[in-house]
Known about the structure:
Radius of gyration of chain B: 13 Å
Low-confidence stretches of chain A: none
Number of strands of chain B: 9
Shape of chain A: globular
Number of strands of chain A: 11
Number of helices of chain B: 0
Order of helices and strands of chain B: EEEEEEEEE
Shape of chain B: globular
Largest sheet of chain B: 6 strands, mixed
Number of helices of chain A: 0
Mean pLDDT of chain A: 96
Structural class of chain B: mainly beta
Helix content of chain B: under 10%
Order of helices and strands of chain A: EEEEEEEEEEE
Oligomer: heterodimer
Strand content of chain A: over 45%
Low-confidence stretches of chain B: none
Helix content of chain A: under 10%
Amino acid sequence: QVHLVESGGGVVQPGSSLRLSCAASGFPFSAYAVHWVRQAPGKGLEWVALISSDGSIRYYADSVKGRFTISRDNSKNTLSLQMDSLRAGDAALYYCARERGFYAFDMWGQGTMVTVSS
Amino acid sequence: QSALTQPASVSGSPGQSITISCTGSSSDVGDYNYVSWYQQHPGKAPKLMLYDVTNRPSGVSNRFSGSKSGNTASLTISGLRAEDEADYFCTSYTSRRILVFGGGTKLIVL
């Protein structure tokens, strides 16, 4: 079965760090670009970051640039998001998503929740 | 404020057709045919309904169709069904090599 499973969410204080992971299974992970997308409670979707299939290309939303780092380990079929200097505005459900075509997402995980609170 | 503008809500009766608009700019929707639409039911992950403006992934009903004119893309759902009631989000690739989402539209099936 084809799956994306996120983990690593939790409750953290402003200014702290957190690392999210996304485990892929059931498809050739190394052949696909993958993204992180987040959704604050009761709000819309916000694109966060992209990493190309081989990891050589990375793009970030302005809201997280310089604070978040996307990475992948194709040998372990794993996507990561290192989040530093967390702010209240970063609180959201974080989804990893597989790219199909060009910046379209045909597979999503169930999400992992990040809460930023003092 | 979202980069792409969608109506907050639209409604229709079963069997009718509705259209949801997604307005961007010449730096995104107007310049690229990389517009996608997602359906999201409460508590669920989004589901891809259309990509590259008009293309349907395998398994998506042909009641869902897309179009684009200038800086505005549109999603049309024909033969409205109760199960279509959900939030719908548009996205577009942009000249800055990032992706932008619309604010989302709540579809109410009366």
